[in-house]
Specification:
With about 400 residues, the chain is an alpha/beta fold. The protein has two domains: about 220 residues, Glycogen Phosphorylase B (Rossmann fold); about 160 residues, Rossmann fold. It contains 16 helices and 16 strands. An eight-stranded mixed sheet has the order 4-5-2-1-7-8-9-10, sandwiched between helices. The protein has a six-stranded parallel sheet with strand order 13-12-11-14-15-16, with helices on both faces. It has a two-stranded parallel sheet with strand order 3-6. The longest helix has 22 residues. The relative contact order is 0.12.
Length: about 400
């Protein structure tokens, strides 16, 4: 089986944690016997803003590279900010079609694996139709809950879901949301994420804190600094947890606002902004953390929840998406409303009576990259077989 993985959500040298879970999943698939994979990870750049600081760093990203054993092409495609975002899928498909025709002649892929629903999904459907290959689209959360409800994009997302040969969702609740939006239930399978149980494991917490120059309770939050992730809620909660330190791993447009929020709340000396952290650097942060906090507004099933549990670190997060499929026992943490008081209360409860770390880690045991790759291969092979039978 020859797979073309298409994903605008994929890490590069400047964004090492951006879509790392897609990269890891694809590596697992490529390692399966009898499977060959090529990756196309397009980067969207507004033509008139290519030299803006937000996009200038992309100039250093190579158009083609071998990364983590994967052959990765990184073509640029035009995007139009604001209302013009509705053109994203069409512009992406138009940019990729000549390239994929050439690639298909050299590497005759027999399925397209689109790893995000916008703009990847609708673009993949157009490309699959032009090249005569079946398409799978995976939903991860924001692509359904944001782009799937945005005017001008929502119908494109649903139409792509109806046209694709197969669909994947990272959690049961996300699958239900896709069905409610009008996508075919019989074509949607739940495909859970994995976790590297060897890299993300229980470590010496006291030593990890000392290595980072920390003492006392440590709270960790990992995610892009954007309103949806809710770091402002975590900062406000910190004001009610004396002596604790909050580590914020990630970068984004909310950083300045969050720094001001920490000053206003009187906790600036107890909040550390770590910026972008390479995925390989996360285990050291989890090792030092007593709790992981993520006051997110929407999520499919966050990889960081599972990684935290694998490290024996309980999670405090909101009751959204697939949270109940991960935080499924008291030792795994707490699901609370998205407000500072609720988060502070849960933090106090878990710090006062922490569960055994092995009991917390046990909640992550069902999630493995091996199982993830096996299920993805079976899903894609079924689409290839059905496509061959229909010809």
């Amino acid at each position: 089986m020859r797979v073309l993985t298409l994903s605008t959500l994929f890490p590069d040298a400047g964004r090492p944690a951006f879509g790392r879970f897609v990269e890891r999943q694809t590596q697992g698939l490529a390692a399966r016997p009898g499977v060959a994979v090529r990756v196309v990870a397009p980067i969207g750049v507004p033509p008139l803003l290519s030299r803006h600081p937000r996009y200038a760093a992309f100039r250093a990203v190579p158009l083609h590279e071998v990364r983590g054993g994967l052959d990765v092409a990184r073509p640029r495609f035009p995007v139009v900010p604001g209302p013009g975002a509705v053109l994203g899928a069409r512009l992406l498909a138009r940019r990729l079609l000549p390239m994929l025709r050439r690639l298909h002649a050299d590497f005759p892929f027999n399925v397209i694996d689109a790893e995000f629903f916008w703009p990847d999904g609708p673009a993949a459907v157009r490309l699959g139709a032009a090249l005569g290959v079946p398409v799978s689209i995976k939903a991860r959360g924001a692509d359904i809950h944001y782009w799937g409800t945005r005017r001008g994009c929502a119908q494109q997302v649903v139409d792509a879901g109806r046209a694709a040969a197969g669909l994947l969702a990272v959690s049961g609740p996300l699958r239900a949301d896709m069905i409610a939006a009008g996508m075919p239930a019989d074509r949607i399978a739940v495909h859970h994420t994995g976790v590297d149980q060897a890299a993300f494991t229980i470590a010496d917490r006291a030593a990890a804190k000392t290595a980072l120059g920390l003492s006392g309770p440590v709270l960790l939050s990992v995610g892009h600094l954007i309103p949806r992730k809710g770091q402002a809620v975590a900062i406000a909660a910190l004001a009610h947890v004396p002596g604790a330190t909050l580590l914020l791993a990630g970068e984004g447009p909310d950083r300045a606002m969050l720094e001001r929020a920490a000053e206003t709340a009187g906790v600036a000396d107890r909040v550390r902004f770590l910026g972008n952290v390479a995925h390989a650097g996360l285990p050291a942060l989890f090792a030092a953390a007593d709790l992981f906090v993520l006051p997110t507004a929407s999520e499919g099933l966050a990889n960081v929840w599972v990684e935290s549990l694998a490290c024996g670190v309980p999670v405090v997060t909101t009751d959204i998406g697939g949270a109940r499929e991960v935080i499924d026992r008291p030792a795994a943490g707490r699901l609370v409303p998205r407000d500072p008081a609720a988060f502070a209360n849960a933090i106090h409860t878990l710090l006062a009576d922490p569960p055994a770390r092995e009991a917390t880690r046990a909640a992550a045991q069902p999630f493995s990259w091996g199982r993830n790759a096996e299920q993805l291969e079976a899903h894609l092979r079924a689409l290839v077989a059905a496509g061959a039978g229909n010809r």
